[in-house]
Amino acid sequence: MAAEREIDLQRAESRILEDPVVQLVSGEASKRGLKVYLVGGAVRDHILGRPHKDYDFVLDKFCASFLKALGAFFKTTYFPLGKGERVYRLVKDGKILDFSLLSGNDITEDLRRRDFTINAIAYCPRERKFFCHPRSLEDLREGRIVLLSPRALLDDPLRILRAFRYMATLGFEMDEDLYREIERKGELLLTVAGERILMELDEIILSPDPSRALWAMARSGILEVLFPEMSPLRGLQQGTHHRRDALSHCIAVTILALQMAKAKDPLPFPEDHQDLLVLAYSCLFHDLGKPETLTIDQDGNVHFYGHQAVSRKKAQQIMARYPFPNQLKQRILRVIEN
Question: For residue 243, what are the contacts with CB-CB under 8 A and spacing of at least 6?
Fold first, then answer.
């Protein structure tokens, strides 16, 4: 179990009220008689004392002049997200501000529709008051990822990957009930847009420590849901020079390579995120061709002659399904084939 964290709501409230984005949004809302709540991850991160760049706000009613005023300040314009969604977004200098309209009769009812208990938290600057699910603070304190309702994964299957991301970025443990739900419903990820999946995968890879998340994704079968080309690697033994099967080997190599790159040990490694993504995906996909190229000689030695070319072809298939940027894709393929 993760170590318990100190939860000090007074300090969290001070951080929220001193946040320039919150000050701006709440000030513009007050001018128009709007009630605004900061919700979800931004509140969670303020409580944990973590940096963040994304803000989710809930409004009690739609007000175009409010969104236009914020857009003018940030020198950008707001735009709606999705079809039929009552969510509006502003993007400026790496910060993302999302505004949704209140669901249900009040903020407490709105919070019941969220993904995990650790995100079912809101703060109202006007009332100077926190609102949260009964388990939210306890789960934050104990570092536990708990599903808010049985429908949460059905409503948005991307939450499956988000749970693994929180393992990597927050260092939290996944609740056993959530883990079993993910094992049962992992195939729902096939209904999610590729760009959304790739964004979550990239965040896991670029997190300070993706190891626990990647191993958990392998154990639960989620890696093979996303990349069925990896399924034949499970249980594939590689001879006396390897202690792990090919699937575990690919994961272990990916983790070790990222650890060495981030530590710049034994060699300096660029801090560019694209370089880390090239390294990680190249390691993850580098042995995809081994099942088809397996041979055993007369002495019982295992060989995989030409597996690099087959691995490259399979990696190309994977990256055709997900919107990898072309330059990133070409760099990954060059590493795999060499």
Answer: none
